[in-house]
C-alpha cells in the first residue's frame, strides 16, 4: 500500500491529475505507462500520486512502492524490487521465483540502472503504471539519464510548480474553516506556494493560538513572533514533543527514512515495549507514521531536519555505533552494511570479523556495497594479518558478482603473491580464473588453473571433479571444492 496519506484538504493540480488519470485509464485498457513527477521538496509530488491513486483505486490492482534515499544509493534495483514486491518467501510464486532467480544470478539488489531503463522501455507491453517521483534537478547523473530515457520514450513528465495564489487561499480556508484575511494572506504568501510549508505554517499558527476567526481568519500576534522559514516551522513541530521523544526521533533519523521498532530499540538500548509511549507521542504530533511492518517519518524533510540538526562528526559516529550495535544482535546484513558505509570507519576489529562473516549474504543482497566496504577494510588491514586472506577472497568474490572483472583480476593476482595457505591459494586461483574468463582472457584463465593444479599436486584422476569446468555463468560462481588427495596417492 502507498505509504503517503492522501491530503485531507485537496486543492488545485487539475492538469497534473488529468495526466495520472489518463495513466490509470490506460491501465484499465491493459496498456502500460510511465509518469515522472518532479519538483522541489514538499511541493506535493507524493500527495499528487496518493490523491490520484485514491481516486482511481481499483480493487483488482496491486499498488506497490519503493523509496530510494542516501542509504540505498548503492542499491539501485532495490526501489524497483520493493515496488514490484519481489522478495524471497513472497506468497506469490511468481515474485518468489523472480527473487530466487536474482539471488542465484547474484544480481542481488545492485544490477545497474539498466533495470530501470529496461522496465521503462518495455512498459507498453506490460500492464503496469510506473510512477516515479523525484526532487528537481537530481544531482546524480544516473537519475538524470533515467529521466531523459522516460521522456524520450514518450513517458509523461510532470513538473510541479508552486500552488496558485487562489489554491493557497483555498487550502488555508479549508484548514481553518474560514477564508484568510489580508494579513494572513500576506503571511501565507511566505510559503511561496509550497503546500508543505503552508500546512506546517498554518498548523504552527493554530498550535500557538495565533489565529483569530471572524468573518475572515486573521493573525493575532506580532509578525516577529512568527517562524520565518520551513526549517523553523519544522523545528517548532519537533519542539512540541517531550525531550525523551525528541531524542528517540534523532536516533531514528540515523536509521533512515524507514526503520523498524526492533532496530530502534537496539540503538536506544531499551526494550521495544518501553518505546510505545514515545512512539505514540511522535505519531500524534504528526512526526511518524506506520508503514507496513515498520515506521516511517511522516515527511522526508522531518527526518532531514532532525538529521541535519546534528553535527556531521556526531552523525558519522552514530552510524558507526549503530552498525556495531545492530551487528551484535545479528540484524539484517544489509541494514548493518548501510550504517557501516554511512559511518565510513573501517579497520575496527569488529568490522573486520563482521564483514568476513556477513560477506556471503551481503554479496548476494548488495554486491557493490559489499565490494566497497571490503575494499576499505582491506586497505586498513596489514598483509599477513590473519584476516587479510579472508577479506581479499571476500572482496574478489564481491567484485566478480558486480562484474568488475579487471579489479577482481588485479586484487586476486596481488593476493596470490602474498598468500601462503594452499587452500586459500586454490580458492583465490579459482576465482581469478573466473574473473579472467569473465574478462574474455580465456588463455590466462587456463594458465592460472594449470598453475594451480600443479601447485596443489592433485591426483590426475581427481582433477575434473575438484575443479568444475569454467563456463559462462551470468556472474554465478560455482562453489570451489578444496582439492583432496585420493587414498591411493598419486
Ligand atoms: N494539492 C495539494 N492540496 C493540499 N495539500 C497538499 C497538496 N499537495 C501537497 N499537499 C500537502 O503538502 C505536504 C507535502 O506534500 P508531499 O509530501 O506530497 O511533498 P513531496 O513533493 O512529495 O515532498 P518530498 O520531496 O519531500 O518527498 C503534505 O502535507 C501534503 O498533505
Ligand atoms: Mg515525497
State the domain count: 4
Overall geometric form: globular
Beta strands, count: 8
Largest β-sheet summary: 3 strands, parallel
CATH architecture of the largest domain: 3-Layer(aba) Sandwich
User: Bound small molecules, which ones?
Assistant: adenosine-5'-triphosphate, magnesium ion
Mean pLDDT: 83
Helix content: 40-55%
Task: Tell me the β content.
Answer: 5-15%
CATH uppermost class of the largest domain: Alpha Beta
Structural class: mainly alpha
Query: Which residues form runs of ≥5 with pLDDT under 50?
Result: 107-111, 458-466, 468-476, 485-490
Could you give the order of strands across the largest sheet? 2-1-3
The radius of gyration computed from the alpha-carbon positions, rounded to a whole number of angstroms, is: 27 Å
Q: Within the CATH hierarchy, at the fold level, what is the topology of the largest domain?
A: Rossmann fold
Through-space gap between termini: 64 Å
**Total helical elements:** 23
Descriptive account of the structure:
The chain is mostly helical. It has 4 domains: 146 residues, Rossmann fold; 62 residues; 74 residues, Arc Repressor Mutant, subunit A, CATH 1.10.10; 137 residues, Alpha Horseshoe (Serine Threonine Protein Phosphatase 5, Tetratricopeptide repeat). It contains 23 helices and 8 strands. It has a 3-stranded parallel beta sheet, with helices on both faces. Strands 6-8-7 form a 3-stranded antiparallel beta sheet. Helix 15 runs antiparallel to helix 16 and helix 17 runs parallel beside helix 19. The C terminus is likely disordered. The site of adenosine-5'-triphosphate has 23 residues, from helix 2, strand 2, helix 9 and helix 14.
Amino acid at each position: 500500500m502507498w505509504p503517503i496519506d492522501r491530503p485531507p484538504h485537496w486543492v488545485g493540480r487539475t492538469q497534473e491529475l488529468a495526466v495520472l488519470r489518463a495513466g490509470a485509464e490506460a491501465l484499465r485498457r491493459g496498456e502500460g505507462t510511465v509518469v515522472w513527477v518532479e519538483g522541489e521538496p514538499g511541493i506535493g509530488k507524493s500527495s499528487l500520486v496518493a490523491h490520484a491513486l485514491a481516486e482511481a483505486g481499483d480493487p483488482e490492482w496491486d499498488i506497490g512502492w519503493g523509496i530510494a534515499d542516501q542509504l540505498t544509493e548503492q542499491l539501485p534495483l532495490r526501489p524497483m524490487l520493493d515496488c514490484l514486491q519481489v522478495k524471497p518467501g513472497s506468497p506469490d510464486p511468481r515474485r518468489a521465483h523472480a527473487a530466487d532467480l536474482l539471488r542465484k544470478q547474484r544480481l542481488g539488489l545492485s544490477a545497474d540502472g539498466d533495470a530501470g531503463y529496461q522496465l521503462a522501455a518495455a512498459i507498453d507491453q506490460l500492464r503496469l503504471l510506473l510512477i516515479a517521483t523525484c526532487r528537481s534537478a537530481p544531482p546524480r547523473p544516473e537519475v538524470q539519464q533515467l529521466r531523459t530515457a522516460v521522456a524520450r520514450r514518450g513517458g509523461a513528465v510532470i513538473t510541479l510548480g508552486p500552488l496558485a495564489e487562489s489554491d493557497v487561499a483555498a487550502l488555508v480556508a479549508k484548514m481553518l474553516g474560514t477564508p484568510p484575511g489580508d494579513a494572513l494572506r500576506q503571511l501565507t504568501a511566505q510559503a511561496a506556494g509550497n503546500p508543505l510549508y503552508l500546512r506546517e505554517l498554518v498548523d504552527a499558527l493554530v498550535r500557538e493560538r495565533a489565529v483569530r476567526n471572524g468573518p475572515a481568519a486573521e493573525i493575532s500576534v506580532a509578525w516577529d513572533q512568527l517562524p520565518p522559514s520551513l526549517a523553523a516551522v519544522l523545528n517548532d513541530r519537533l519542539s512540541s514533543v517531550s525531550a525523551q521523544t525528541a531524542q528517540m526521533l534523532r536516533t531514528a533519523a540515523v536509521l533512515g527514512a524507514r526503520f523498524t521498532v526492533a532496530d530502534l530499540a537496539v540503538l536506544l538500548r531499551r526494550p521495544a515495549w518501553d518505546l510505545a509511549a514515545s512512539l505514540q507521542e511522535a505519531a500524534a504530533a504528526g512526526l511518524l507514521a506506520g508503514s507496513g511492518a515498520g515506521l516511517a517519518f511522516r515527511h522526508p524533510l522531518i527526518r532531514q531536519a532532525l538529521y541535519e540538526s546534528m553535527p556531521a562528526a556526531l552523525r558519522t559516529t552514530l552510524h558507526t555505533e549503530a552498525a556495531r550495535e545492530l551487528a551484535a544482535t545479528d540484524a539484517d546484513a544489509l541494514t548493518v552494511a548501510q550504517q557501516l558505509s554511512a559511518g565510513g570507519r573501517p579497520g575496527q576489529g569488529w568490522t573486520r570479523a563482521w564483514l568476513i562473516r556477513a560477506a556471503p549474504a551481503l554479496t548476494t543482497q548488495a554486491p557493490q556495497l559489499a565490494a566497497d566496504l571490503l575494499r576499505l577494510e582491506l586497505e586498513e588491514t596489514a598483509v599477513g594479518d590473519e584476516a587479510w586472506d579472508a577479506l581479499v577472497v571476500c572482496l574478489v568474490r564481491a567484485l566478480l558478482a558486480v562484474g568488475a572483472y579487471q579489479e577482481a583480476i588485479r586484487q586476486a593476482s596481488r593476493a596470490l603473491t602474498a598468500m601462503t595457505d594452499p587452500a586459500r591459494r586454490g580458492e583465490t586461483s579459482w576465482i581469478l580464473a573466473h574473473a579472467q574468463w569473465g574478462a574474455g582472457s580465456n588463455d590466462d584463465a587456463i594458465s592460472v588453473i594449470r598453475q594451480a593444479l600443479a601447485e596443489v599436486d592433485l591426483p590426475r584422476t581427481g582433477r575434473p571433479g575438484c575443479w568444475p569446468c569454467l563456463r559462462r555463468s551470468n556472474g554465478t560462481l560455482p562453489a570451489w571444492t578444496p582439492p583432496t588427495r585420493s587414498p591411493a596417492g598419486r
